[in-house]
Amino acid sequence: MSSAVFSTSAAQGRPFVFDNENVAEVCPESSAAKFFTEARPPQRVVNGALRGAFADARLAGITPASQLAVQLPPEMVSSGIAAMDALTGGLPRGCLTEICGPASSGRSTVMLSALAAATQRSEFCAIVDASDALDPQSAAAAGIELDRLLWVRCGENSHHAEHRLEQLLRVTDLLLESGGFGLIALDVGDLPPQTARRIPLTTWFRFRRAVEHTPTVLLAIERQSIAGSCSSLLIKLAAFKPSASENFANDLPAHAQLLTNVEINAELVRSRMERKPVRSAEITFTSKTAWAG
User: Fold this and answer.
1) Which pLDDT belongs to residue 163?
2) Residue 268 — left, alpha, or beta (φ > 0 → left; ψ -120 to 50 → alpha)?
3) Residue 43's domain spans which residues?
4) Domain count, the chain
5) Of the four listed, 90, 144, 199, 287, which is most buried by Cβ atoms within 10 Å?
6) Model confidence over 103-128: pLDDT tens digits?
């Protein structure tokens, strides 16, 4: 009488019966290789699965890395200050640039120079003035063509910094959506630092995305950097060595002397315009008053 060997399949839940005479043939030496060969799907099935995965990725809005377009560097335009252009290469279009520094550090000088250079290129510009600090006579003396400048005075009818900041953000959204501006300057330099820091990082990210792929230079004038990684260029200013007119005696008090120029120190803190890491660099340039020629 022949005996039988029973093996229970966990997957199917039913027994298999083999005769003793065929036991030796159940697991021949080549069965392992045969098992793995049959378990491995054909190459055409793998390729089909990959194509299906890429199709699902495209439907989900994901672009494979091999199909990403090469991003060209932004166009650089002059800031109106030769020494600044030598340091940064100019101001990038379609990007956010931060100019920060304490009071009397040259923030307004850089802003007015950039606006003057843009209007002299026949571009229309806008300045969103959070503190109503712009002096039209100083702007004209700096070379700005006023008929090409839109001046938004957020602080004219409001004494609350929070309300002025809210107006600035709303106006900036409208200006970025409308398009057509070569340069938009956001002047929050005279707002209290704790108020300026209330601008959410998501707002700066929205501004950066709105100006991206446009010919607009978005310039933020601040006391301290508040846009974080959303800015493509960050320049820190510091003023020193004010010079008074030589027509006055040196022994006169400071408030009785006529200021003729000031030397400004500019440090390149961050730049995303280069592929290699940017080393910290500094320059010094002189800003003259209008009456000093």
Assistant:
1) 87
2) beta
3) 4-67
4) 2
5) 144
6) 889 999 999 999 999 999 999 999 99
